[in-house]
Amino acid sequence: MTVKMLNELLNIRYPLMQGGMAQVATGGFAGAVSAAGGLGIIATGGFSTAQLREQIALLRGRTDKPFGVNLMLMHPEVEELAALIAEERVPVVTTGAGDPSRYVESWKSSGSLVIPVIPSVALAQRMERAGADAVVAEGTESGGHVGELTTMALVPQVVDALSVPVIAAGGIASGRQLCAAVALGAIGAQIGTVLLASPECPIHENYKQAVLNARDTGTVVTGRVSGTPVRALKNRMSREYLKLEERHASREEFEVLALGSLRRAVFEGDDRRGTFMCGQVAGMVREIRPVAAILADLMEGYEQARRGLPTL
Ligand code: TUI
């Protein structure tokens, strides 16, 4: 039986889609990913409903390739954003940080493919029952809001539990890792961290440099004890956060520290008070390369890895 890979499912060149990337993934950036042959995705985290409408128009003005919108379900305007996504007939909808079940019908009836991002088998099964066309199984290696399981443990368990296709995410920055994800039963991969180091990515230069400088152990998860677990680069901000967690600080103290911290990283490059969301593969990212080169290298590395697998 031949498997339909992500590129065929989405009618794009490569089996690669971009992660949600709150505050980062504008219409311009997502358009660059789609133009390069992946699936670019506009993030809603950081945009109002009116701004999302503008970003979709901007992307559509630059490329007629398929694209997606990621609905961050903790967004204060979640209902309005969900309605706009249906109205705009966005080709692909991904979701994060919650259960999108109640919107799936409306998106599907307006013609979208619905691909929720999930961190566990139970949520994956709930998404299949709600009518999802596929799921992204995202391991804790990812940047941003993460679950507990690693990609290696999560992906095959989700593949075995579902009949719809599974896309792997978390810890994928090279062709070798894409090949491993396909070996686990995924039809493609969602990538984020590796795309931060591109000229097209609209983050502050300090953010890019911090990713380039990071080593394998350069990220940490804050909020595992209190609230929402988020993986980001280790810096003064994450250390302060962990200190608050150790002494079981109040919700207000966390809010004062964390409120606006992603914006301070993305727009100001503030290494002291910013949250530089980033995955564990930061240690593999060594240079700034155009998005098209990043995607092409991933695919070349994939073919090399496939051919290089030893027969036992
Ligand atoms: O959503 C992500 N990654 C994100 S969202 C984000 S924006 C943000 N900023 C600050 C604090 C929190 C969020 C940055 N990165 N990945 C997909 C993902 N979804 N990871 C975990 C989940 C998830 C968690 C709970 C999905 C469903 C879920 O359901 C709970 C329930 O039962 O409703």
Short description:
This protein has helices at residues 6-10, 27-35, 49-62, 78-87, 101-109, 121-130, 151-161, 175-183, 193-196, 205-213, 236-246, 251-258, 261-268, 291-308, and strands spanning 16-18, 40-43, 67-72, 92-96, 113-118, 135-138, 144-145, 166-169, 189-191, 219-222, 230-233. It has 312 residues and is of the alpha/beta class. The chain has two domains: 12-202 and 286-305, Aldolase class I (TIM Barrel); 205-281, no CATH class.
The CATH class of the largest domain: Alpha Beta
- Mean of all residue-level pLDDT scores: 97
Intertermini distance:
24 Å
Task: Enumerate how many helices there are, as a single number.
Answer: 14
Number of strands: 11
Cα-atom Rg, whole angstroms?
18 Å
Low-confidence stretches: none
Range of helix content:
40-55%
The main sheet orders its strands as 1-9-8-6-5-4-3-2
Class of secondary structure makeup: alpha/beta
What would you call the quaternary organization? single chain
- Percent of residues in beta strands: 5-15%
**CATH fold-level topology of the largest domain:** TIM Barrel
Order of helical and strand elements: HEHEHEHEHEHEEHEHEHHEEHHHH
Main β-sheet description: 8 strands, parallel
